[in-house]
């Protein structure tokens, strides 16, 4: 049981770290849209490659996220990341604690 508890704890930590990293990637991508950087910059292209497919799916599933020239899909993505972090990751970590 200790091995399972440690594995679940490690999965929860890695998943939480990845979600936290993606949270900041979305924040940086949003800030960059305000500044209008060079679209051929490799960093800007990498950020857009990481975030645009998720934003596209949110816009497709929830068409009300784009209204009056404002795109609220990053807000929906940030809320979803936080919900997953607080529900799934916390539950996984708590379950790992009960196993040990």
Task: Give an overview of the whole structure.
- The chain starts with a helix and ends with a helix.
- The protein has one domain (2-99).
- The chain contains three helices and two strands.
- The longest helix is centred in the first third of the chain and has 34 residues, at 2-35.
- The model has no long low-confidence stretch (mean pLDDT 93).
- Helix 1 (2-35) runs antiparallel to helix 3 (73-99) and helix 2 packs across helix 3.
- Helix content is 81%, strand content 4%.
- It has helices at 2-35, 42-61, 73-99, and strands at residues 66-67, 70-71.
- The protein is elongated and about 50 Å long.
- With 100 residues, the protein is mainly alpha-helical.
- Strand 1 (66-67) and strand 2 form a beta hairpin.
- A two-stranded antiparallel ribbon has the order 1-2.
């Amino acid at each position: 049981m200790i091995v399972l508890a440690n594995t679940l704890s490690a999965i929860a930590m890695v998943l939480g770290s990845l979600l936290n990293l993606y949270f900041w990637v979305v924040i940086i991508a949003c800030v960059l849209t305000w500044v209008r950087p060079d679209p051929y910059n490799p960093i800007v292209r990498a950020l857009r490659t990481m975030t645009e497919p998720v934003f596209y799916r949110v816009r497709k599933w929830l068409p009300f996220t784009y209204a009056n020239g404002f795109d609220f899909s990053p807000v929906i993505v940030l809320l979803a990341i936080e919900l997953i972090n607080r529900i799934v990751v916390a539950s996984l970590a708590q379950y790992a604690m009960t196993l040990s």
